[in-house]
Design brief:
Blueprint (H helix, E strand, L loop, with lengths): L1 H22 L6 H22 L11 H30 L4 H5 L3
Amino acid sequence: MKSYATGFLLAVLLTAIPFWLVIGKVFDKSSTTALVILAFAAVQIVVHMIYFLHMNAKAEGGWSMLALLFTVMLVVIMLAGSIWVMFHLNHNMMPGMQDMRNMP
């Protein structure tokens, strides 16, 4: 029960702090706020996995942790690749269209 209470308190704090950052407009740049919120989200994922899903290196002989690491690696590759493709498509598609924006 103590583990669940600790996890719950950490989850509440990791949710309340980003709300305060946005509502209080603590950072001048919105990109800084977004990066801090993403960092809090990553920490909250870890808190949920440890305190509520009871994942650790000993669970199921380490296979669940290995599966989690493989999943995280695949998600990072897919997200990074998608962002890379979208950036280059935006930059390389229809290069003549930029000249038409200045036309009346």
